[in-house]
Amino acid sequence: MKFLTTSALALMMATGAMAAESCATGKTLTDGTLTIATGNPAFFPWVLDDAPEAGKGYEAAVAYAIAGKMGFDSDAVTWTRTSFDQSIQPGAKDFDFNLQQFSITAEREEMVDFSDPYYTSAMAVLTTKSVVENGAEPTIASLKDLVWGAHATTTALPMLNELIQPNTAPLLYGDNVDVTAAMQAGQIDAALFDLPTALYLSAVVLNDGVILGQFPAENTPSPDHFGLLMAEGSALKPCVDEAIAALKADGTLAAIEAEWLQETTGVPVIK
């Protein structure tokens, strides 16, 4: 096996950094600076304490990781704030890229550019504290015994029937508002939502809401893919895509997801 000397390794790292810098040179709003946008406010677990500049929270950490791969030190990153709806409108942008859980859709891609996905949303089990106290656990065997509810026309229903195969037929509802209302009323024990929605519902909508666990994204039919949003025709897109590919290849994105969307939120993977 051939080992690299310290000097050779340093040369390789420097060469990689120079390549990243050359890719972004002249393509950012301000030379030498990467301007990144997030929501106003930005919420846990995507950004901690509404302070993206601290690099804490899933999307804040991803943003700095991408910036680093593109050759920008943390002190060369500037943050700005935008609304979700404002960002997806066509036209010039006051940021180089924006990340605030933008799902990549064909309709949106007619107005803006998206990077390759940096996150693929898993499906999560939303329930209540009382159900957990009664013994529900993040295992398929335990999930089979719960009383489930589902929006009749979403991908959650076939996943529920195929992957969990509950012992009693799920109760079907016209929309997700009715599903959460039924859970609050104690008519059902649990329901499936994508993880970002489940995080929101458990924190804001349900009294004593709990996320029992999440399924690996590969077990989720038609998952949402989150991408960095850029102005249509952005010259920076190839650089961003290259950075995301490198972060996937070296395991950085997986490590950030484990830290901020599994460990920090306390949402285990269902087995």
Descriptive notes:
Helices cover 36% and strands 16% of the residues. Helix 2 packs across helix 9 (237-249) and helix 2 packs antiparallel against helix 10. The chain is of the alpha/beta class. Strand 1, helix 2 (58-69) and strand 2 form a beta-alpha-beta unit. Residues 1-20 have low confidence and may be disordered. The protein is elongated. It folds into 2 domains: 26-118 and 227-260, 3-Layer(aba) Sandwich (D-Maltodextrin-Binding Protein, domain 2); 121-219, Periplasmic binding protein-like II (D-Maltodextrin-Binding Protein, domain 2).
Integer-rounded radius of gyration: 21 Å
Number of helices: 10
CATH class of the largest domain: Alpha Beta
- Assembly state of the chains shown: single chain
Q: SSE order in H/E notation?
A: HEHEHEEEEHHEHEHEHEEEHH
The assigned CATH architecture of the largest domain is 3-Layer(aba) Sandwich
How many domain units? 2
Give the strand order of the largest sheet, numbering strands 1, 2, ... along the chain.
Answer: 2-1-3
Q: N-to-C terminal Cα separation, in Å? A: 38 Å
Mean pLDDT: 88
Query: What fold name goes in the CATH topology slot of the largest domain?
Result: D-Maltodextrin-Binding Protein, domain 2
The coarse overall form would be elongated
The description of the largest β-sheet is:
3 strands, parallel
Helix content: 25-40%
CATH superfamily of the largest domain: Periplasmic binding protein-like II
